[in-house]
Amino acid sequence: MSSVIATKPAVTTADDMLKPKSRDASVHLVGDTQPCELTDGFHLVIDALKLNDIDTIFGLPGIPITDLTRMAQADGMRVISFRHEQHAGNAAAAAGFLTGKPGICLTVSAPGFLNGLTALANATTNCFPMILISGSSEREIVDLQQGDYEEMDQLAIAKPLCKAAYRVLHAQDIGVGVARAIRAALSGRPGGVYLDLPAKLFAQTMDAAAGKASLIKVVDPAPRQLPAPDSVQRALNLLKGAKRPLILLGKGAAYAQADADIRALVEKTGIPYLPMSMAKGLLPDNHSQSASAARSYVLAEADVVMLVGARLNWLLSHGKGKTWGEPNTKQFIQIDIAPTEIDSNVAIAAPLIGDIGSCVAALLAGIDSNWVKPPAEWTGAIADRKDKNLSKMAATLALNPSPMNFHSALGAIREVVKARPDAIVVNEGANTLDFARSIVDMYEPRKRLDVGTWGIMGIGMGFAVAAAVTTGKPVIAIEGDSAFGFSGMEVETICRYDLPICVVVFNNNGVYRGTDINTSGSADVAPTVFVKGARYDKMMEAFGGIGVNATTPAELTKALNAALATAKPTLINAVIDETAGTESGRITMLNPQTAAKKKLASST
Questions:
Q1: Where are the alpha helices (DSSP H) in 325-370?
Q2: Is residue 572 within 8 Å of residue 505, measured between CB atoms?
Q3: What pTM was estimated for this model as a whole?
Q4: Which has more confidence, 304 or 603?
Q5: pLDDT of residue 164
Q6: Does residue 601 carry a pLDDT above 90?
Q7: Burial tier of 558 (Cβ tally within 10 Å: 0-12, 13-18, 19+)
Q8: Does residue 284 have a cis peptide bond before it, meaning omega lies within 30 degrees of 0?
Q9: The CA-based dihedral angle spanning residues 410, 411, 415, 420, taken in that order and rounded to the nearest 10 degrees
Q10: What is the DSSP string of 135-151?
Q11: Given 213, 306, 324, 419, which residue has the most CB atoms within 10 angstroms?
Q12: Cα separation of 262 and 321, whole Å?
């Protein structure tokens, strides 16, 4: 397939002739003697994606893209149809993170586009490569605001919320539009891209040979960006002089798929490391250099911190405050492909600009046999704290309260994941997320997907579907009952495609917990309280999946092992103590308090 853009041929619109039923059947007589095979906008979109090795679309059919989904499936692409566009978008984003290719979400216009836009914005924030493709109303009517079907200036709305946005108006430009979207999604810091395809575009026809020549195979969409040698040496010198160094791994390090070099860097330097939640498993969580069980200590006490694919955002207290110990006592090395990220919250002493794979390889090349590992005083102090904290955790996990709490239920899941390290864990909720992050160890890269930078709920079923579809591995979705409510209807999607997903709903009857009281005296329950004793497992059974009601860790373990063994859609309703859980989980400090509460707290 040529990557040369052909001169624009004459285009026949839907107003001029009927849409061809297939490429083989679409023949136009030239000069009444020569047959000319035609193609159309539908097929050009499909061919452009396939040419760039994109084989899966996540979406929801409807006007004007229903035929596009049918044709894509008939042409060998996998089309996963959801019940809501937001979850299809989340699936596309997760697919992008897992595969390193832009995940494709296809939606209808206006409301469908808006539903997908939440996932697109989230993908951009998390640096997941994703392309949202939406059908749209005709430009002439939209621009004059004449009231077209689902009229909306979608391109203008999308632009502030994604990395790039493009509109294609002519069939001969489809190849360029798809190529630009792919390159924008993958190059530099990955992110979300919007591609607007008006309804009239799909039925446009053109000469098939010219159409084929107009398509572009994107070459090297994410080229290596090598760090400057002096910046590599500066970072090495800072590490060499550190007394209490720390390597902090972010999800960007997991996305980079430079797993072997990252592990070699950690082990050759001997520096303790701390993984952010989606970087867990880059090295096994039980690795001797893991400082996860001493997180508070190492963040406060380290004197040099090297950030690898992590940002000093709210998840890391912006690099300052009591989380980081005494002010002005540490220096930062930051590996990032975007130079504008440097100094965003605190001064970065040694910026290392380039792609993570190239930067880590350059650092490795500068570490020889004479490298001096961190002082035993530092590594020993971390080991002592780890041992104490892990012992406390083991004692807590050994308890078997009735009803279950977060620790006892997650302790059961922890052992199953240990036995099946190939399983992918999807995790969302408040307390369910917080406890799972610290209790469920990961052993392989990119096996944990969670709420990410924004910390939003609702990613669960979309991420789970993407993980199952793109990897073929079993998926365990650990869900708070509130978080599950955002995307719970997608259990039908899971059953429809017979995916190896086991959803575990931690059911404590409410948001955070099920014990709040309505103090007004009315019959309404409190805003955070759900129906008591709900049976989420019956939802899965309604669509032909397997539902289990588990009230003990033993029942939970049995059901989870059975789900992994059968690879059948399963939902376990894990009943836990409704008093378990705290307000907003571990980010209570972000929940504003009333002045009255603050005054009361200060007087006690």
A1: 356-365
A2: yes
A3: 0.92
A4: 304
A5: 98
A6: no
A7: middle
A8: no
A9: 10
A10: EE--HHHHHTT---TT-
A11: 306
A12: 29
